[in-house]
Amino acid sequence: xxxxxxxxxxxxxxxxxxxxxxxxxxxxxxxxxxxxxxxxxxxxxxxxxxxxxxxxxxxxxxxxxxxxxxxxxxxxxxxxxxxxxxxxxxxxxxxxxxxxxxxxxxxxxxxxxxxxxxxxxxxxxxxxxxxxxxxxxxxxxxxxxxxxxxxxxxxxxxxxxxxxxxxxxxx
Length: 171
Hints:
2 domains
């Protein structure tokens, strides 16, 4: 009787081991198949080089270059970038570069927000971000005198990108 019990116990242990291996294999396959897939993110809207910027009440021909700054009062990256924008506004004075801050909120709110950061020498306009082909803030859009996009920068800029902006608007 003990040999039959031993055989049953051995068979049961083998079946449990096979089931455990199968379960581990199944779980590993499920885990690997979900982590190896790259999630599809919607493509973010951004300005297109050469495309004309359409902003009401802005005549781009009055200046050889215009830097359109797409900002929001509640954007922490915009607020972290305000010292750069203040420096930018000071450096372009008298150089024929037009600075236009565009907010999705009212012009008064935009003017107040910039003034809180010590920026008072900038035009402020109100527009929806989609009009500027922008899905995020801050976005800087450099245009020529025809209002065509020459270059753009999205997000809080690293120091070398800040220098790039300054170089491009000064040249």
